[in-house]
Amino acid sequence: MKKILEVLGTVLLVVGGVGVVRELTDGWFAFMGVTRVVVESVPLLRDSPLAAHAVLAAAGLALLAAADRRGRA
User: Fold this and answer.
1) Which pLDDT band, with edges at 50, 70 and 90, does 28 fall under?
2) How many CA atoms lie within 13 A of 54 on its CB side?
3) Distance CA 27, CA 13 (A)
4) Could you tell me the pTM of the whole model?
5) pLDDT tens, 31-48?
6) What's CA 26's distance to the chain center, in Å?
7) How far is CA 31 from CA 14, 15, 54, 59, in A?
8) What angle do CA 7, 52, 46 make, to 5 degrees?
9) String of b and e for 30-69 (b: at least 16 CB within 10 Å)?
10) Distance (Å, whole) CA 64 – CA 8
């Protein structure tokens, strides 16, 4: 279970972080196009993609913290 949380947390952190950089640079990092697909597929997230990517990165950090905590128990 710990490994699943670590992998999912890492993926969310990377997608969220790259999405934030992509939005701040106005699409300059086009090689990570998956970030736009993730945000545009959810109607609630379409209005503010920068905030959506920041939330994805924060969720990734939370999952990594939960995995770390689970490993100590």
Assistant:
1) confident
2) 6
3) 18
4) 0.83
5) 677 777 878 888 888 888
6) 18
7) 13, 12, 19, 23
8) 125
9) eeeeebbebbeeeeebeeebeebbbbbbebbeebbeebee
10) 8
